[in-house]
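User: Structure please.
Assistant: Input sequence and predicted structure:
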Amino acid sequence: MGWKQISGRLGLAKAQSQQWMTDYQQTGDQALLAKLFMLHADALYFFLLRQSNAELAADISQQSWLKLLEQRQQFQGGCSFKTWLFCLARNALLDEFRRQQRWGLSEISDITETTLFSEAEPNSAEQQLSQMQQQQQLESAIQQLPVLQQESLLLQLEGFSLAEIALISNSNTETVKSRLRHARTRLVSLMEDKP
């Protein structure tokens, strides 16, 4: 499957989400909410999981869907549904981190464009092992990034544009670009330091 086919399907899913959410706002039809959940729940959970733990990710994911139920009329369509959903989740996660005093306030107020590994099937067990080790090193390196750089990188890896990341993180696009640039530089440094 080529990039044009993949990007075409992503665009179709985005348009479907918008329409389903608009219809759900007007009708309250739970079948539409179920479709939105099936399309976006996994991506939302894994985004949250990479920034927290399994229990907190599940809790915040559930809170986000409940907020969607409560605040469905607040969706204006000025951004994609997925962007709006991730914005709800990020705000809930930040609230929880503040509650737990996990982040300092200065850190709150202050991820790559391409993957580091090819999608090709490895030919041997050695290649598979090597690729798994590289993936683990990358995951470890991402966890070592400053929180806001990590968040930006993870959102970009999730497929959000710079403008959408800026909207979700309540930042401007230049700040997001800077965070991504610093994150990539730091990742390269961290990966080079590994044996």
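DSSP finds nine helices and no strands in the chain.
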